[in-house]
Specification:
Elements: E1 6-12, H1 14-108, H2 113-130, H3 138-147, H4 162-175, H5 180-183, H6 185-200, H7 207-298, H8 302-320, H9 324-368, E2 372-379, E3 382-388, E4 394-401, E5 407-414, H10 431-446, E6 450-452, E7 456-457
Antiparallel strand pairs: 1-5, 1-6, 1-7, 2-3, 3-4, 4-5
Helix pairs in contact: 1-2, 1-3, 1-4, 1-7, 1-9, 2-3, 4-6, 4-7, 6-7, 7-8, 7-9, 8-9, 9-10
């Protein structure tokens, strides 16, 4: 190529500026429609998620209520079974003690009114046992009275069979139960000692002593029976309290476990809802974001394409890993990035349209001046056109944009005879080429789209209003 590059900035005509402003308004309206459509789709998806979540929560609440009712029923049944078992055990023990009293009455051999009265009382106590009523010390009180009944219906007084009386008292002591010595060791020892004294007084000549001790033994046995019954009742209450405490501890542990399970379920539900939200929101913008990234590469903005693709990955990767919070943060960032990216792409598209319109105007003007069109291609944000004159000279024209967005035409000319590589100071050069390109520029103006400014080049004489090349904005390679 001969000579230095020649260039001219290009202004757009008022008519073209109006058309471009109209395109910009149409682009803005399209962006608003897209934003509104995305907002509607997000709202619709959010409403569906809310309905599904409400249905799941209602189902979960119903299931939780069912489990709670089932647990209450099971615990009630267990409690009732426990109480029933305790009552049965108590009733069995009382029935055995009552049977012992009945047996004592039978051995007494009485048949008078007093015996009949005892039998009625025994039957009444049995009915109370059958109804699971508390009878406290009634059995032992009746036992004491039966023991005093002598054979043949006589009261154990003077002349009564001392051996039978002793046997009855010893049977009564044994009937109090083997645990009496543990429940009331002092009382049990006193009864044993008194029975020993009574036995010693059962011989001849000790009738008065025997009768005197008999009431004391009777009183001691009654007291021991009452104490044993009270201690047994206390132990039963303690066992019941221990059971209740154990049951409450189990219930508390079950409630804590249920609360922990509920918390885990709530967290699982929250993460599932967050994943569903991130998936839905990504579904709204994913195709637009990918299309924007592809368009950014086509419009020679790889940095924007990389930002969009990185933002997409910041959503898809957490979703694949079920990282709900990271996915939500990523989709929010993508939603924020996309509108600005689409605005940038619209501006790039306007700039491309402007370059292509200018390229078409230039091509028409060059062909009108006798040039043959050789080739044209896009190189990033530039359009490069090649032309050839009948004499063989070649003109390669690059259409670009400076930092302020102003179109620039740059010509590389090769083969023109009036092009001097190193002109003398003050010498006029490029006369023919300059005149030819000025005519091309005039033809461009006639298309009512673009207005090229003065053609200039490096080293243009001052008399011809030379301007420095925009070296800060352009670096041309060949």
């Amino acid at each position: 190529m001969s000579g230095s590059p020649k260039y001219a900035t290009v202004r757009v005509s008022p008519a073209y500026a109006r058309r471009e402003a109209e395109r910009r308004r149409a682009q803005a309206a399209a962006r608003q429609r897209r934003d509104a459509q995305r907002a509607r789709e997000r709202a619709e998806r959010a409403a569906r998620r809310a309905e599904e979540m409400a249905a799941r929560r209602e189902k979960a609440l119903a299931e939780a209520e069912r489990r709670k009712t089932e647990l209450v029923n099971r615990r009630t049944a267990e409690q009732q079974a426990h109480v029933s078992r305790i009552r049965q055990e108590q009733a069995g023990a009382e029935a055995r003690r009552l049977a012992e009293v009945r047996d004592l009455l039978a051995r007494a051999g009485g048949s008078g009114p007093e015996t009949a009265q005892f039998e009625q009382q025994l039957d009444a106590l049995q009915s109370r046992i059958d109804r699971a009523e508390q009878i406290d010390g009634a059995i032992e009180e009746l036992r004491g009275r039966v023991v005093l009944l002598s054979g043949g219906g006589e009261a154990p007084g003077r002349g009564a069979d001392h051996g039978a009386v002793l046997a009855g008292l010893e049977a009564r002591l044994a009937g109090i139960g083997p645990d009496a010595g543990q429940h009331d060791p002092d009382g049990h020892k006193r009864c044993v000692d008194l029975l020993g004294e009574l036995r010693a007084a059962a011989g001849p000549g000790a009738e008065t002593r025997f009768q005197a001790l008999l009431g004391t033994v009777e009183h001691a046995l009654t007291r021991l029976a009452a104490t044993a019954a009270q201690r047994a009742a206390d132990e039963q209450r303690q066992a019941q309290q221990a059971y209740e405490a154990r049951r409450q501890a189990e219930e508390q542990a079950a409630e804590e476990e249920a609360a922990q399970a509920a918390a885990q379920e709530a967290e699982h539900e929250r993460l599932a809802a967050a994943l569903a939200e991130a998936t839905d929101r990504l579904g709204v913008v994913r195709s637009s974001a990918q299309a924007a990234a592809d368009e950014a590469r086509e419009l020679a903005d790889p940095e924007l394409a990389e930002r969009l693709e990185t933002a997409l990955s910041a959503v898809t990767r957490p979703l694949e890993a079920h990282a709900a919070d990271a996915a939500l943060a990523g989709v929010a960032a993508l939603e924020e990035l996309l509108p600005g990216a689409e605005l940038r792409l619209d501006e790039l598209q306007l700039a491309l349209t402007r370059r292509m319109d200018l390229a078409q105007a230039l091509q028409d003007a060059m062909v009108g001046e006798g040039f043959a069109f050789v080739s044209g291609e896009e190189e990033g944000e530039r359009v490069v056109l090649s032309f050839e004159r009948p004499g063989g000279a070649t003109y390669e024209t690059t259409i670009g944009t400076d930092d302020g967005g102003t179109p620039v035409l740059v010509y590389h000319v090769d083969g023109e005879p009036d092009v001097t590589l190193r002109p003398e100071p003050g010498a006029a050069v490029c006369d023919t080429t300059e005149e030819l390109l000025e005519r091309v520029h005039e033809a461009i103006v006639e298309r009512d789209g673009f207005v090229p400014d003065e053609l200039t080049w490096q080293g243009k004489p001052p008399s011809r209003r030379a301007e420095p090349l925009p070296g800060a904005e352009w670096k041309w390679t060949r």
